[in-house]
Amino acid sequence: EGSGEQKNYEFKIVLLGDRGVGKTCLVLRFIEGLYNARQQSTIGAFFLTKKIVTARGDTCKIQIWDTAGQERFRAMAPMYYRNAAAAIVCFDVTDESTFNTMKDWVEELKTNVVDKNLVIAIACNKADLETRQVSRARAESFARSIDAIILDTSAKENFGVTELFVAVSEQVIQLR
Ligand code: GDP
Ligand code: MG
């Protein structure tokens, strides 16, 4: 195409949401392309990094912050999401209570984050399961009300995961 030069970006994405919703599995699926049904609660690092190239050829070095067993709502210090360009708030579509925690997290972000450009995305994870409790329509209507990206994801069956991280990254770039 040749319209303008490619740029390099570097930013931080944090994952939030109840324990067990699949945050670590989503990160590992995205970064390593792997899935482990017995995923341990910690990946032993504050963050992992991954480089992606967008459709228009920009390079993003993404720092992905996963929680290590501090998921209990508000146990997480605001320091965790400080300076984040985006937050991916995850819930398990087969567990209604995790949907409510997701909404609490969004509320917390809206209250505490001064950066109006914070990108918020909702991962409706375990969308491969048939015992869904939270419908797609319901999740979408919430997402629309807060102007968030939303995607059905499955770390297990590998759908929506790369799409989610790419959509988030492209929105981050647009706001820069
Ligand atoms: P975290 O506590 O939010 O980090 O959750 P984990 O990533 O440790 O995932 C908890 C468990 O949920 C995993 O051990 C998997 O067995 C299961 N799990 C994670 N993602 C999926 C998914 O997309 N589909 C299904 N069916 N199970 C998943
Ligand atoms: Mg985890």
Question: How would you characterize this protein structure?
Answer:
By secondary structure, this protein is α/β, with parallel strands linked by helices. It is built from 4 helices and 6 strands; from the N terminus they run βαβββαβαβα. It has a 6-stranded mixed sheet with strand order 2-3-1-4-5-6, with helices on both faces. It is globular, with a radius of gyration of 15 Å. One of its GO terms (molecular function) is GTPase activity. Keywords: Nucleotide-binding.
Relevant terms:
176 residues, alpha/beta, six-stranded mixed sheet, 6 strands, 30% helix, binds guanosine-5'-diphosphate, binds magnesium ion, GTP binding, nucleotide-binding
List the helices and strands and how they pair.
Layout: E1 8-16, H1 23-32, E2 47-53, E3 59-65, E4 86-92, H2 96-112, E5 119-125, H3 136-146, E6 149-152, H4 161-174
Parallel strand pairs: 1-3, 1-4, 4-5, 5-6
Antiparallel strand pairs: 2-3
This protein binds guanosine-5'-diphosphate (GDP) and magnesium ion.
Question: In brief, what are we looking at here?
Answer:
This protein has helices spanning 23-32, 96-112, 136-146, 161-174; strands at residues 8-16, 47-53, 59-65, 86-92, 119-125, 149-152. With 176 residues, it is of the alpha/beta class. The mean pLDDT is 90.
